[in-house]
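Narrative of activities, Objective 1.

The group set out to show that a structural description can be obtained from nothing but a protein's sequence at a throughput compatible with the screening campaign. Below is one input-output pair from the validation batch, recorded exactly as produced.
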Amino acid sequence: MAQGRRQRRRYKRRTTGQTDYHRRLKLLRGGTPRAVVRVTNTQVICQLITYNPGGDQVVSSVDAKSLRGKYAWPSKESTKSVPAAYCTGYALAKQVQKSGHDEAVLDIGLAASTPGNRVFAALKGMVDGGLWVPHSEDVFPSEERLAGSHINDSIAGAVEKTKSAIEEAN
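Output recorded for this entry:
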């Protein structure tokens, strides 16, 4: 580690592997808000964040657990599945449009950018919800995975019911 007078210590978040500062700087230089998607052990979190020199400001935030309370997501179903990520991204896009934002750039953090994963399911929800995010169609999961038919046939109905509840609420 850095010990001497001429040595410089790295940022703590860099050494612990929590932040890639080069990628973050590239995202901030554009000036557009960031659509941040994080997948935890229990849920998917989507946020729209704007840069402020004093600290980033969260414009809007939706987590998959709020889908249960507000938007009729079934309580027995997982909140970190591909369909839950899609509905979370869809809810964020509808919520953000009320505040006057219509474009963003995707920030997936240190997550792997594997085509078809939950991060890109949330991106597909944002795009379907009307938020313009630069993307490629190749990274989205298939329609049957977004609808949840790979898990259970009843989830496809839950996704449609949740989308209509999001439409009504916003």
